[in-house]
Amino acid sequence: MSAAHHEVGGALPPHAETATLEGKNKVLGFWLFLGGECVLFGSLFASYIALRNQVPDGPTAQHLFSLDLVGISTFILLTSSLTSVFATMALHRNQFQKLQAWMAVTVLLGLAFLGLEIYEFVHYVNEGHTFTKSAFATSFYTLVGFHGAHVAFGVLWISLLIINGFKKGLTVVTAPKYYVAGLYWHFIDVIWVFIFTVVYLMGKVGP
What we know:
By secondary structure, this protein is mainly alpha-helical.
């Protein structure tokens, strides 16, 4: 079925991502997966909060963090969450080309976020904030780096989804894949809001 055919309204049933039993199972299974991810990130947050003031010798959060840079990163990632919403809206309207386009914009914003995070980490290392410098450094890189790895995975996942979409189009089989990818992207955006608050804002304010 061609991409043009998928643009026609009514080509797919409403909420095509759950129109089949397989689709419903995929969405349900993914929600369960996100529940497990919440527990994992919760453990990392707890470890960071417990260790964030353990800096016997080395730069502190107040010295390191630049809210200007992190603010730009946050704006980019939150914007990507909005473009992901637009993609989901296009999915529900059977607008395949718009779905692909908004997903592509989401990927580009995700790459921009990763580029800024890599720049940030390099700057911190140059300031002496290496992974083994202190308990604070280790917990910081573990939490923020783990989130960054999730963003990188999301970028790769959505990119492959877009490429595969050009071959298979939008069907009741591919719709759940786009939908759960959107859920995943919203999840990592929400996690970043907590990181921005707990790590950067609290770190800049101090103990």
